[in-house]
Design goal:
The protein is mainly beta and 186 residues long. Strand 5 and strand 6 form a beta hairpin. The two termini are 18 Å apart. 8% of the residues lie in helices and 58% in strands. The chain has a single domain, classed as Lipid/polyisoprenoid-binding, YceI-like (Lipocalin, Beta Barrel). The model has no long low-confidence stretch (mean pLDDT 87).
């Protein structure tokens, strides 16, 4: 993580943001593990000069349009994920996330620790109007391409994970977040 100091743009035009869900419960075989693409998101990355050997000060603010979630694939399950299933899952997600009242999710960094190619970016995520700490594990090419991974818990944001069949099939509370970006100078 050693790009030139400055301000960079990131978003759906410079990379991708995926969410990964998993299922649990005695009827978990009936459900699907989902890969969900966030089609509209944007933000800025500010990079200050090194604060020590291989250390950077990075500030990030990213906004995610929660209405742009797109079910890319579903693995597992008794039957393949159908177009009807995708539509129903999207409808349920919009309801659980209360997208009509909280259309945007936001991540703002508070602390960065890094070496030339690895780092951790701690911050605050706000989803559905509730904020909680979040950490991104970042790897990079030493320049402008970054991959970030995080796990967030729905319950940290007041979201009760989806349940079906009287709770025998449940969406697991942790959601994986995967981001790959190429920083673009403003």
């Amino acid at each position: 993580m050693a790009p030139t100091p400055g301000t960079y743009s990131v978003g759906s035009d410079t990379g991708h943001l995926y969410l990964r869900t998993s299922r649990e419960g005695v009827a978990s075989r009936a459900g699907h593990d989902l890969l969900i693409a966030v089609r509209q998101w944007s933000g800025t990355v500010g990079i200050d000069a090194a604060t020590g050997p291989d250390a950077l000060k990075v500030t990030i603010k990213v906004e995610v349009d929660m209405s742009s979630l797109d079910i890319v694939e579903g693995t597992g399950g008794i039957a393949p994920l159908s177009a009807h299933d995708r539509a129903e899952i999207s409808k349920t997600a919009r309801k659980l996330l209360d997208v009509d009242h909280f259309p945007m999710a936001v991540f703002v960094s508070t602390l960065t620790t890094s070496t030339a190619s690895r780092g951790t970016i701690d911050g605050t995520a706000t989803i559905r109007g509730q904020s909680a700490p979040a950490s991104l594990d970042v790897t990079g090419d030493g320049d402008t391409s970054w991959e970030c991974h995080a796990t967030i818990r729905q319950s940290d944001f007041g979201i009760k994970p989806y349940r079906a069949f009287f709770g025998a099939l449940r969406l697991a509370d942790p959601i994986g977040v995967e981001i790959a970006v190429t920083l673009r100078s403003d």
